[in-house]
Input
Amino acid sequence: MPIKPPAVTGSSNIPVISGLLVAHYQDRVAKQRIHADDAQLITLQHLQNLLDQLLINIAYEQKSTLEKLLSKRPEPCKSLYMYGGVGRGKSMLMDLFYDACPVPQKRRVHFSAFLLEVHTFTHQCRQQDISDALPLLARYLRDYVRVLCIDEFHVTDIADAMIIGRLFSALFELGVVVVITSNRHPNDLYQGGLLQEQFLFFIKVLQKAADIIELQALEDFRLRQPHTHRISYCFPLDAYSNAFIQHHFDSLTRCALKESVVLEVWAHPITLTAAHEGIALSSFEELCVQPLGSADYIKIADLFNTVIIADIPKLTAAMRNEAKRFVSLIDALYEHNVKLICSAAVPITEIYTEGDGSFEFERTVSRLIEMQSERYWQSVK
Output
């Protein structure tokens, strides 16, 4: 099943790695890959404490029965929920933790991709007449994952809210250590949503099972990154922007014919304006007005190394669904390191400023800006 990570066999000797995260952080600063920030260092110490406690617990579990009788059982590990503004370094700090963690049964995944896998698992269970898949999924995950890192945790849908609440409550009970990044405090995760009171039980469980840490860095560090000499975002929409899109498609495909391409995901079609050897040309209309979802965008991100999107409009409050799809699309392209070239009606910071979900859209703005940087273009596939 898609949610299963590579199987791990055998035991391993767990090293003592106290202070390792700060050392790795300072090494990145010395190499000018990141800028030093006191707030990040404070949050990093919480991650180091979690890592130390996790290894103490694993070392105890690996002792013989006699050794356990002669030693004190350590305190169980709490999970960690890290929140703060966009571009403050939450994902980077979690990656430092994940890379340094010597536990083989670990997984790092973007929340949208994880939620898609959960829906796939529950759908498969329904086909097998299994009515309650979530406890089964929690046990399945615990068999393969000891440490689960979830990036960009958010809740916007009542059905997802109920699934998330039950699944993560079960994972905590089974002893899975979960590290979560989010832009919102747990109390604000499902603010104003339908049947919000039914989600409150999960917030209470989360606050009991995890330390809630705010990353208080004041600056969006993505805005510091130098832009590439390439122009990859063109506005406003006019004859020049049309020529801009055509030029990039011709240049990247050596003037390939623009023929419509239809992809298929879960038995429904995705229509693109054109595609040629890793280059996809499409429009906002095709990708975000049509009723597509995370699975569709992940499929596109898997297939193409460069995506060209034409005619991104200024989004209004009435275009909330289109804005939500655009967020999912950019998340998928960003997580898969896909190059993005696009034309739009307004500057990046003005695409969606008012309406339901505009707070979450700030992350998309930050990512769009980073996707123009020289560092991003050098790192893409």
Q: What stands out?
A: The chain has a mean pLDDT of 86.
